[in-house]
Amino acid sequence: MNQKKIALIPGDGIGPEVVAEGVKVLKMIEEVDPQLSFSFTEFPWGCEYYVDTGKMMAEDGIDQLKEFDAIYLGAVGYPGVPDHISLWELLLEIREKFDQYVNLRPIKLLHPNLTPLKNKSEKEIDLLVIRENSEGEYAGAGDWLFKGKPEEVVLQTGVFSRKGTERIIRYAYEEARKQKKTLTSISKANALNYSMVFWDEVFTEVGKDYPDVQTYSYLVDAASLYFVLQPERFEIVVTSNLFGDILTDLGAAITGGLGLAAGANINPERTYPSMFEPIHGSAPDIAGKGLANPLAAIWSVSQMMDHFGEEEWGSAILSTIQEILSKKNALTPDLGGGATTEQLGNEFRDLLRHHAPLHDKVQRG
Ligand code: NAD
Ligand code: IPM
Ligand code: MN
């Protein structure tokens, strides 16, 4: 019996709406698979909690989360609370304290109609971005000197440690070797004359241990162009924290939008829980209206199943997303349909029953 304890942080805006659908998927899985059981503990943390308490999470929030097998997060941030406070005190705090230094963001076209790119189909848009998730431009190092004075100076320092850079690049090489795919490093050494020169050197150095992996290295500006014009160049991609953030929204744009883009924040050593989330934000413009697409949040449940070693369920969820994408009526407005978040969730679970892994332990509905 695989028993997993899941911490839920639905968060702000559309976060609770999409997490609710992901949780229903998990409950359906445990209902049909006698080998699996989940327990859920929900935490009320987020911007409303901040307005009530002056904190984004409980004082001992990190300690409380430590005992879980996974964290399932919706979105964080809402008008009224400055973004740098809400994100730094909750989402980024968890990524950092739990050393979730790998951020896995698949950019995979699941239906030909979903890309705005002419003449590109599923086989040309299928990459995995491995984003450094613990330091770099997100180190939070800097200063604000002479605030409000004419001589005001603001410093935001990128921090690229040998340990941090090597481990993410090595992780990416391992993944490329395992999947027998090419590996592309995306950096910017022409302008960032310390950090990215170092990044490129480490990429070459670590590569000596992986002569079997075919590599490419692009500057981030050119890589952005290729993402749009020749996405088939990319299979496994490794890049820094900020570049990975930006490139994966671009990746979402070429594969159906933010309503479909998922991400896993992984602590590979499993010393701490990993965290699964859609990569979109709280979408205040559509919150509370039943318009949010829950498929990104559901895709991140597929990543959670893979992380739990339940890859059959991981792929069953992905195939179900693929299938539902051809049923326009079942989709939310961002994908051209007229369904609500909940209606899409209901239809999804009906279909998933038929994709349930085929072994005798599973009773199919
Ligand atoms: P956003 O991702 O919330 O929204 C961008 C656009 O995409 C909006 O038009 C929105 O309606 C649309 N969209 C996003 N998710 C959707 C979904 N599931 N279905 C349909 N449409 C969807 O980005 P933003 O507006 O720049 O940020 C809003 C807030 O969220 C800010 O406070 C920001 O800091 C925060 N944010 C949080 C996360 C996170 O928690 N992981 C990620 C990004 C932004
Ligand atoms: C993401 C988000 C976060 C990031 C923000 C909300 C801090 O945009 O997960 O992509 O930049 O990592
Ligand atoms: Mn982002």
Description:
The chain is an alpha/beta fold and 365 residues long. It has two domains: 217 residues, 3-Layer(aba) Sandwich (Isopropylmalate Dehydrogenase); 139 residues, Isopropylmalate Dehydrogenase (3-Layer(aba) Sandwich), CATH 3.40.718.10. The chain contains eleven helices and twelve strands. A ten-stranded mixed β-sheet has the order 2-1-3-12-11-4-5-10-8-9, with helices on both faces. A two-stranded antiparallel sheet has the order 6-7. α5 crosses α6, α7 packs parallel to α8 and α9 runs antiparallel to α10. The relative contact order is 0.16. The C terminus is likely disordered. The site of manganese (II) ion (MN) has 3 residues, from α8. Its EC number is 1.1.1.83.
Using brief descriptors, characterize the structure shown.
single chain; 365 residues; alpha/beta; Isopropylmalate Dehydrogenase; ten-stranded mixed sheet; disordered C terminus; binds nicotinamide-adenine-dinucleotide; binds 3-isopropylmalic acid; binds manganese (II) ion; NAD; oxidoreductase
Question: Helicity range of the residues?
Answer: 25-40%
Task: List the secondary-structure elements in sequence, H or E.
Answer: EHEHHEHEEEEHEHEHEHEEHHH
Number of domains: 2
Task: Tell me which ligands are bound.
Answer: nicotinamide-adenine-dinucleotide, 3-isopropylmalic acid, manganese (II) ion
Query: Looking at CATH, which topology of the largest domain would you report?
Result: Isopropylmalate Dehydrogenase
What is the level 1 CATH name of the largest domain? Alpha Beta
The gyration radius over C-alpha positions equals 20 Å
Low-confidence stretches: 361-365
- CATH level-two architecture of the largest domain: 3-Layer(aba) Sandwich
What is the number of E strands? 12
Q: What is the tally of helical segments?
A: 11
Helix/sheet category: alpha/beta
Judging from the principal axes of the Cα atoms, what is the shape? Answer: globular
